[in-house]
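Researcher: Please translate sequence to structure tokens.
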Amino acid sequence: MASSNTSVIEERVHLLHTRWSNYISGGSFDQFIEFAVTVNSLAEHFSRMRLPGLVRLCEGLENLALARLGSQASHPLPPQDIALLQRQVSTLLGTVATSRGAPPERRIEEYRDEPRPVEWIKPRLVWLVVSDDMLDAADALRQQIDFFGFQTEEISWNDPLPGSDAPLAVLFFPGSDSEDSEHATIAAIRGHCATSQLIYVGAQPAIDNIVALMRSGIDLTIPIEEGATMVLNCVLDLVQNFEPEKYRVLVVEDSLVALTLIQRTLSEHGIDSRAVRDPGRLIEEMRAYQPDLILMDMHMPRFNGVEATRVLRQMSTYRSIPIVYLSSESDIGMQVEALRLGGDQFLNKPFNPVLLAAVVKTKIERFRETLRSTRHDGLTGLLNHTAAKSQLKAMVERAAPAAQLTVVMIDIDHFKSINDAYGHPVGDQVIRGLAWLLKGRLRSSDLIGRYGGEEFLVALPDITPGQARAVIERIREDFSSLPHAHAKGALFATFSAGVASSTDFPTAQMLTEAADFALLEAKQHGRNRVRQARADDENFRCLQPYLFPENS
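Model: Translation complete:
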């Protein structure tokens, strides 16, 4: 795990241990709710980090806790229930403790200022569990996985488990053994690799079969006809192991007591919130805070929650934002009418804190997934032009004054000729291959966007221009040796790149313009090369009046 994620896990695990200990000593209903909320929050964090085994352990513990939530009168729990929960807590904490170093880190191993190949990230281990009759298919996929920056280890279904660290992912290719034997092997690996993603390649498209695989421990099944493309996409997605932007909830509630309870619950789950006690300020607060979801009280001074919702739904900016009513209104007719007039869900007061957090997070995740399609390129899954520019601007604005940020513009050479000679499907394959290589070789903290057509934008924070150039040179060399299959064989492509540093060009616009000019220089000097823009370089002197008009 990356060190930042490890520290977050340590904090949350410590909080879980503390709250369970508090309940053991105090035995109150409120303490048990705090414990259950903490388990739910930890499960959500593991899910975002793609640690399915730990998610399962958390969900098992959460289900046990929720089944015993009861009411004030049912606490403290009887000794046998406490013992059962204690075993689950101990199992979870023990598994977390032994798995913290399991997934290989995405870390820079060595910096060098000179433009020479450097090791940018540590290898990430992938196991392939293969039967004899699937060796050829597995070997072809293994070569591709290795090329894109992973380290693979191949074992048969009946081999003992390797003594290496737990892998990032395990790929299973159907064996000739019985289903029971297969499921037993999967279950054994699941138990050994709590943090790994388990993917079954070649599952029969029958629900009974897929459910049985899931019960054994499989996280994802991929039909054999999907081939290497789907598998590579799934494995590459796993390395994007970053903390997403914090959820933001606007709480429209006039009661100070209710507001305090709601915000406390949201805070327990790592959800940021802002309160609006006067609904007349709703639109002003929406513009300033830009929430992912609104928790709306039904009955407030001046006008009610339904009227406020109807106003928001008339504005295109807020037409799709989730609105959840949280009210003591018990009239079913009123609740139905509230939903008909723009609400997404209705929760009653007093609310169950675990249910409230689950509803909020689920609604926000679906809302963000909808927004994601407008920010990401459909072919590569990378940020699109608008989103990449927006994120680069944000990176520049939040960077410390002395921090370094290097921007790279990349363009595939002679791409029109590739489309004309081999067709657009092959051209798409070349673009996707470069996108995969960038995702596989760069860090999760780096910005990667498809800027348009065959052009890519990359931003590398906290390294020198020389280090950034060395990394891009290595990727350029590897891309030139990547074969792209077509009907008559395979073709090879190259790219050119321009590099610019914030030490020379301090704004996002300056960085992109300077990098783009350096890219043009690389093209004019023969392509398949990397050029760096420097403010004091004679070749880039013509940029001065445009980038620094105050000095011209």
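Researcher: Any highlights?
Model: The radius of gyration is 27 Å.
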